[in-house]
Amino acid sequence: MNLETIGQKLKQARIKSKHTQQQVADRCGISKSLLSKIENGQTTSAVATLSKVSEALDVPLTWVLDGHPETDLVVLPKGDRQMNVDDENMGYSFELLANRSHFSRIEPTIVHVTPKDYNKRHEPYTHSQDEFIYIVEGAIELFYDGEKHYMEKGDTSYFKGVKPHLFIPVDNDGAKVLTVFIDD
């Protein structure tokens, strides 16, 4: 466990959340001086204390302890990306293109829209992020807030994820959509 990396991550999380050391220390029931030493990599701390600090900063303890420092560059070769399919009835699968940082406000993804005959998803969904899409292959109907919009290769759209939306396949070729989620 690299104390300096852990400290840097906690400090980064605290600054990102716009909290002072005193505010975080008070939330955790520790002294400001102990938090300062943890952030500067000057002291070991019990996992229980790190857990309290990570909870106060709303970051996963596993991220704090993983030992990998944040980097400015992430290269993710195509062969290393994995397809995620949580549920056959979802109507799509996706692959995360880059997860630069726990704090990144942008999440680029390729969404593979299931071909029409196999797509069982008919209910729109919502989420808190804004969404930008670019049709890479094929075509879809973007159902957004009660209206359908035909989109084909090269078309783009930007919309609020809080409104009901759904990618509807138009044929049995399916579609590939570059989706960028943007967190406010």
UniProtKB/TrEMBL annotation:
Gene3D superfamilies in alphabetical order: Jelly Rolls, lambda repressor-like DNA-binding domains
Cellular component aspect of the GO annotation: cytosol
Gene Ontology MF annotations: DNA binding; DNA-binding transcription factor activity
Domain HTH cro/C1-type: 10-64
Swiss-Prot/TrEMBL keywords: DNA-binding
Keyword hit for DNA-binding: yes
UniProt-listed PROSITE patterns: HTH_CROC1
Superkingdom as given in the UniProt entry: Bacteria
Pfam families, per database record: Cupin_2, HTH_3
Record InterPro entries: Cro/C1-type_HTH, Cupin_2, Lambda_DNA-bd_dom_sf, RmlC-like_jellyroll, RmlC_Cupin_sf, TransReg_Diox_bact_type
Protein name: Helix-turn-helix domain-containing protein
Organism, scientific name: Lentibacillus cibarius
Source lineage: Bacteria, Bacillati, Bacillota, Bacilli, Bacillales
